[in-house]
Amino acid sequence: MKKKIVSLFMAATLSASISLCSCGKEVPFGKEEVVERKLSTVNYQVPKEWAEETSNDVNVHFPGGTADPNASYIMTAFIDDQPFDEYIDGIAENGAENFEKEEVTIDGTKGYKVTFTMQDETGDASCIMYSVSTDDGIFTAAYSQSSNGEDYSDYIDKLVHTVKFK
Q1: Disulfide check for 40: which of 75, 78, 98, 111 has CB 3.0–4.6 Å away?
Q2: Which residue positions does the secretion signal occupy (predicted)?
Q3: How many domains does the chain contain in total?
Q4: Max alpha carbon distance in the chain (Å)?
């Protein structure tokens, strides 16, 4: 009986130590190789195999690997010279349907997560958008899935988890 109790205790201890070892640093994209991206004063990570189109204030990432304009994509943007609440509420006023807004915190900064649908060339597009007001402007990370696009919606949360403001 004592051997069974000791065995159970050792098994429980081993399980707990394995669980605790994996608690350290969370890896949002799992085993996918990632690259750092910078947009103004914001750094974040995306998987290396994503296709992308970049400019000074907008980066468009295509999780499917090709920059197809009808594909699902994640856009990061930096917007200045606009009041934050006006920007967020303006989405609902400009044709967004099923608009929902909730407060979130990204890298210690309060912002919003909004979900909505909009019409695009292919029909309804589902959108998930995170926005935070910083000293330099509004940082936005938005996911859009057209009616015929693949579902990569889980990637927007993973990307936002890697955001670091400088």
Answers
A1: 78
A2: 1-21
A3: 1
A4: 73
